[in-house]
Amino acid sequence: MYTLGIDLHKRSSVWVLLNDARDVLHKSTVTTHPLDINIAIERLPVAPKDVRVVIEPTGGWRWVADILEQSGMTVHIANPTKVRLIAESKKKFDAGDAQTLADLLRADYLPEAYRAPNAIDTLRMLVRERAYFVRLRTSVKTSYPRCTHEEGGTSHPRTSSAEARPRRHRTWRRQRNDRTSAAPRRTHRPHHATGKTH
Length: 198
What we know:
By secondary structure, the protein is an alpha/beta fold. It contains eight helices and five strands. A five-stranded mixed β-sheet has the order 3-2-1-4-5. One of its GO terms (molecular function) is transposase activity.
């Protein structure tokens, strides 16, 4: 069995292939693009089905892992924090180095990270993106009045005080108004209509 360590980065990655005797059989720098990754797999001196590969969960790792698995490789995801601790405790190791990752996997000493299913990972990404845009919107709303005030201006004329209130407060006001308008109104008849006199 052969072990491939990939030091993955946004633009390029370093591949190091080891055999069971820790000999370096192949080393290359690969552009992080689907076409280049497939070409790099074809150029390996061994069959992909005989290769165990390890990568760290950095940006774009999931689609890279999918390509590697489709070629027949067995993919392992390293826990970057624990790998860094091991590298610091062993002076001969270099954290994040492709050969270090391959050597840890070869020795069955690799700390692996949990790999969520694709559907769960997609939902997590959507939640993170939504949280980012909510923070961005809040930042813009709070900084705009301050900027205009420093320049001697006022808030945007189209923004009413009601729109500036939190959504929860506006919802409560609307519900209260709806209840008030829906409640039956009591009518007061004049005293002479009842036939009673004082």
